[in-house]
Recover the amino acids of this structure.
């Protein structure tokens, strides 16, 4: 029961960490494009950013779950074979006492497991932010961004655009054939129609 209470106590810290990762990812995505995303984000955008990233990209959820599962299986493997010489060397390298019984060894490995999972998330979100931002910047410079939406503004004129991102207050997009990123308030957009992929 105490173990469950400790986990419940760590959940808010975990969510704060996810929020920081979401902010970092967004900042790194928009930095090469010359946009300070924090100026255009509300507190709601910041709170929901990491969850929306994971829900919007099922591969991201799969990668996170599989890596956490692999860490867990590796931890279980180390505990099960803690009597073997090579496993003892690994445990000693992580400054753990290989003489502990299996239950104590599991408890001692929890902080290492949390640090490894946290580092995996940090690397993933930073990589996604930098990679996506640089990819958009290169395509923007070479004008190879393909339109993915047809945007109709409040003036009634439809335009093919490449939608970079959207939050609760703004659309970030590039019109076909242009190099400048436009930032439009949500209220100025009448409709947004998806262009089907060929």
């Amino acid at each position: 029961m105490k173990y469950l209470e400790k986990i419940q106590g760590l959940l808010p810290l975990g969510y704060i960490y996810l929020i920081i990762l979401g902010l970092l990812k967004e900042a790194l995505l928009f930095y090469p494009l010359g946009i300070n995303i924090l100026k255009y984000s509300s507190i709601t955008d910041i709170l929901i950013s990491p969850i929306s990233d994971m829900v919007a990209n099922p591969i991201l959820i799969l990668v996170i779950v599989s890596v956490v599962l692999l860490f867990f299986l590796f931890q279980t493997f180390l505990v099960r074979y803690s009597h073997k010489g090579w496993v003892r060397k690994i445990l000693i390298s992580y400054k753990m006492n290989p003489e502990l019984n299996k239950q104590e060894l599991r408890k001692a490995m929890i902080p290492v497991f949390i640090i490894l999972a946290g580092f995996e998330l940090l690397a993933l979100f930073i990589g996604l932010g930098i990679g996506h931002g640089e990819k958009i910047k290169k395509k923007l410079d070479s004008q190879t961004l393909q339109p993915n939406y047809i945007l109709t503004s409040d003036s009634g004129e439809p335009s093919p655009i490449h939608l970079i991102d959207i939050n609760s207050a703004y659309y970030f997009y590039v019109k076909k054939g242009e190099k400048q990123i436009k930032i439009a308030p949500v209220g100025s957009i009448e409709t947004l129609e998806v262009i089907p992929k060929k």
